[in-house]
Amino acid sequence: MFRGFGTLVNVAAVVLGTGIGVLVGHRLPQRTRDVVTDALGLVTLLIAATSVTVVADKALSDAVGGSAPVLIVLGSLLLGGITGSLLRIEQRLVGFGGFLQSRLTRDRPSVERRRFVEGFVTASMLFCVGPLTVLGSLSDGLGNGADQLVLKSVLDGFASIAFAASFGWGVAASALVVLAVQGSLTLLGAVLGSFLPDAHVSALTATGGLLLVGVGLRLLQLKQVPVGDLLPALVVAPLLTQAVVMVR
After folding, report:
1. In 226-240, which positions are buried (b, 16+ CB within 10 angstroms) versus exposed (e)?
2. Is 0.85 surpassed by the pTM of this model?
3. Closest C-alpha among 132, 125, 158, 161 to residue 147
């Protein structure tokens, strides 16, 4: 298999899952769609919890000290959030979603626009935030196979069915973000030629887990956490880990 195969499979899974979800969604009452979205929110929190626990990983604590991992995650979220807010990442994602909606679903009422944008933004965050996105893409780029991304594709495909039943074709538009993010990480893996150290991966995974908590809260309509603005934290986490390692 060629490098980038896993990302192409993931994009296809999202588009196919969305198509199935849209067909099913028309046959479901609104209350059923709401239940599906709530279920996704709860499962997202479960996945987030498994990622966040990595903050106690031995490799990370050995590298930076017993009390530093939580501070690294905190610092990553603060620095990443400030950066993302200044860059207006969340606003730009929403704007891009609105642009796509205006081109793909013209002359639809404003409620459809909001539904499209919310589906695009929420699905983009869920599909692109997590350890499998980073590790799977890097592994694919290094030529070690696309097994992790194929697994992620199966998960994303089923999630797309559920999302599309509630949000419609906006979920399919998130495939563009998947292609851009995972494609870039695959290229980065090909350039780097090696994986990040275990400690750095653990810090990144724990930080990504907290971002998934934000996604879950959005799905449950508890709080509209600007997860897009927090995305730079995924870059800051390994950098901050390296800084602490060098200081020690």
Report:
1. bbbbbbbbbebbbeb
2. no
3. 132
Q: Chain-centre distance of CA 125, in angstroms?
A: 4
As a dihedral over the C-alpha atoms of residue 111, residue 221, residue 227, residue 106, rounded to 10 degrees, the angle is -10
Block residue for tokens 């793909």: 104
- The tokens for 198 are 């275990």
pLDDT 10s digits, 156-187? 888 888 888 888 888 998 899 899 989 998 99
Rounded to the nearest angstrom, the gap between the alpha carbon of residue 82 and the centroid of all alpha carbons in its chain is 19
Query: Which residue's entry shows tokens 């901050």?
Result: 240
Do residues 209 and 234 lie in contact, with contact meaning Cβ atoms separated by under 8 Å? Answer: no
Domain tally, the chain: 1
Q: What residue ranges in 80-178 does DSSP mark as E strands? A: none
DSSP three-state, residue 131: helix
Q: Write down the H helix ranges in 146-169.
A: 147-167
DSSP 65: -
Residue numbers of the domain that contains 95: 5-247
Whole-number Å distance between alpha carbons of 136 and 122? 21
